[in-house]
Amino acid sequence: MGNRDTMGKKGFAGAIATAILMSATSFLAGAPIPLQTEAGLCLPSPGAWDIMPPLSWAINLLLLLGITGSIYILNKNYAFVPGNDMTLPGLLAVMSFSCPWVAGTLNSSTILLAANTAILSIAFTCFKQRNATRELFAIATILSLGTMVQYAFIFMIPAYIAIAASLKCLRFKETIAFILGLVAPYWVGVGLGIIPLSDFSMPDISGLFSGIEAKRSMLAGLTACAATALGALVGGLYNSVKLYAGNSQRRLYNICFNILGVLCAVCIVIDFDNMPAYIGTLYLVAAVQFSDIFALHNIRHRSWWLAGLCTLYAASFIMTEIQFFF
Fold first, then answer.
1. What is the pLDDT of residues 158-209, one digit of tens each?
2. Could you tell me if residue 297 is inside a domain?
3. At CA 32, angle to CA 205 and CA 92, rounded to 5?
4. Is residue 319 part of a domain?
5. Is residue 134 in some structural domain?
């Protein structure tokens, strides 16, 4: 069942073409600008980097396409979605580019998604490893560096502690290595005078229901985000029985994605003005769950269902852009 070709190479090529078209449209037409409170603890966030708009768009496009390819390779190596189909990377491409806040120019969401992809590739190598101190140090260092430019990385720290525990690689030495990895970038930055203490600031966090009137202009994008979070939750529950009865290692890898998904959904509610930062990672988790549905369950006309799902995300992109102008 897992080896059935749901999307195929032609479908994947169409998904990539659609993703690039949405990205170009988002850049040329002007992406809707959500409420912005994104900030780092001591360095400018990606939205404040002095990069020419065309270059920023090109970097963001290449980075998202690179993430799509990396997820395909990661799944090929660890098989958290059964089979070798193009459904996961194709679906991720359409979903991530369907959000104009993510697709237009280089942004925190793409940076966080790239970091999570890299960290997961490191974390998966730690499964039942007898000594994973270097890996845990590397994971913590990436998270620590991320907090400098986007405070959303702070919320990823407990998620990866839980992920390391799930993968049975969090022992005393690994815990110490993780703590040292969190401290090291700040120790070096402050110690060498690269980061003055005066540059440090605490984030201003606002919940979902603060300033609700101003958020009505984001209705189309918020609806797609909420539907994605709900779909990922339902998909996770639907897939859990099959995963529980199957390969234990695959089940643990999916649990890792679920931990990230739950965390991102919670963060969107409690840190709503910084919502765009979490969308890319949430869409990755949802893409894994949706791909698992097609791979694990005997669904008739699965290619049509997949095409319909991609069409819905493309439609949400159009609606978000239309709402921006009208």
1. 999 999 999 988 899 999 999 999 999 999 988 888 888 877 877 777 666 5
2. yes
3. 85
4. yes
5. no
Q: For residues 315, 316, 317 and 318, what is the CA-based torsion angle, rounded to 10 degrees?
A: 50
- Alpha helices of the chain — where are they, by DSSP H? 8-29, 53-78, 87-97, 100-103, 108-123, 133-149, 152-166, 172-191, 219-245, 248-270, 276-296, 302-325
Q: Please tell me what DSSP assigns to residue 2.
A: T
Instruction: Give the domain range for residue 101.
Output: 8-110+198-325
- Confidence check: pLDDT of 10 > 70: yes
How many residues does this entry show for the chain?
326
Spatial separation of the C-alpha atoms in residues 263 and 255, rounded to whole Å: 12
Contact 310, 94 (CB under 8 A): yes
Token pair of 27, please? 């850049």
Q: Which own/partner contact pairs does 51-58 have at CB distance under 8 Å and 24+ positions apart? A: 51/105, 51/106, 53/27, 53/105, 54/27, 56/105, 56/106, 57/23, 57/27, 57/104, 57/105, 57/106
The verdict on residue 127 lying in a domain is no
Amino acid at residue number 256: C
Which tokens in the block code for residue 318?
A: 């159009």
**Residue 265: band (very low, low, confident or very high) from pLDDT cuts 50, 70, 90:** very high
Q: Give the number of domains in the chain.
A: 1
To the nearest 10 degrees (0 to 180), the angle between helices 53-78 and 8-29 is 150
